[in-house]
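Budget justification aside, the reviewers requested a transparent look at the raw inputs and outputs of the sequence design task funded under Objective 1. We therefore reproduce one unedited record. The lines immediately below are the structure tokens for a 245-residue chain.
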């Protein structure tokens, strides 16, 4: 039973064309782990948080919000992450979720001096936990962010990095948590639509065109989904199975 903490929605102009972020995650993860069950908690609309003792894991979505912004749900979100960590509830975080977990656990997050990251970004694998089991040295995901984790929280390990995003994926063994700056739930079609919404505000035409062009090469969405599933499985979420054989 995975609680999806919905912290944002697609832009209004494309919202009716594409599924929401919780649906994207359910489609992504259930394709390789049918025993995952999802419940959505739309905290950005004022819905209450779940109790960590009634769920097996947490997934925090992306959001147009920044973790430093004064939304009514932001302080409760930080408290929820800390409560989940104290109860050993596994947490996965994507983009804003990646940043929120870092901030809640003592890291620093802010707008990057490097500006907007869009398009297909490739990351080097730096250190992989035993349960991650991969022969790859790098992976690629679509991104859409200007905020980044700037200081590593205590106890966090850097899983993946790039020149643009040095703290691109983090693993917190004792929380436990696994977070990614990139978006495994975004396909090329949705990513292109999202970039086009931001064309000329705030992204210049050339940057949008270049970002969309990078999506002609495949991303590693399925691979990252396997890692997220392996993380939940390693921390005994999926059927209490422990590490896969």
């Amino acid at each position: 039973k995975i609680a999806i903490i919905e912290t944002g929605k697609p832009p209004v102009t494309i919202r009716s064309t594409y599924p929401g972020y919780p649906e994207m995650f359910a489609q992504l993860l259930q394709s390789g782990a049918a025993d995952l069950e999802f419940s959505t908690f739309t905290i950005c609309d004022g819905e209450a948080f779940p109790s960590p003792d009634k769920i097996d894991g947490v997934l925090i979505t992306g959001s147009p919000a920044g973790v430093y912004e004064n939304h009514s749900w932001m302080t409760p979100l930080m408290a929820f992450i800390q409560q989940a960590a104290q109860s050993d509830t596994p947490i996965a975080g994507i983009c804003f979720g990646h940043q929120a977990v870092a901030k809640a656990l003592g890291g620093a997050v802010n707008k990057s001096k490097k500006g907007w990251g869009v398009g297909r970004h490739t990351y080097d694998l730096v250190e992989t936990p035993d349960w991650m089991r991969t022969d790859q040295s790098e992976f690629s995901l679509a991104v859409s962010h200007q905020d980044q984790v700037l200081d590593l929280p205590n106890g966090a390990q850097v899983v993946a990095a790039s020149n643009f995003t040095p703290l691109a994926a983090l693993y917190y063994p004792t929380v436990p948590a696994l977070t990614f700056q990139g978006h495994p739930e975004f396909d090329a079609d949705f990513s292109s639509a999202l970039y086009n919404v931001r064309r000329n505000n705030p992204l210049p035409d050339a940057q949008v065109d270049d970002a969309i062009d990078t999506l002609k090469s495949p991303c590693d969405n399925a691979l990252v989904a396997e890692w997220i599933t392996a993380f939940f499985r390693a921390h005994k979420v999926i059927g209490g199975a422990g590490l896969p054989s």
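The two ends are 22 Å apart (CA to CA). The chain has seven helices and eleven strands. Computational costs for records of this kind are itemized in the attached budget.
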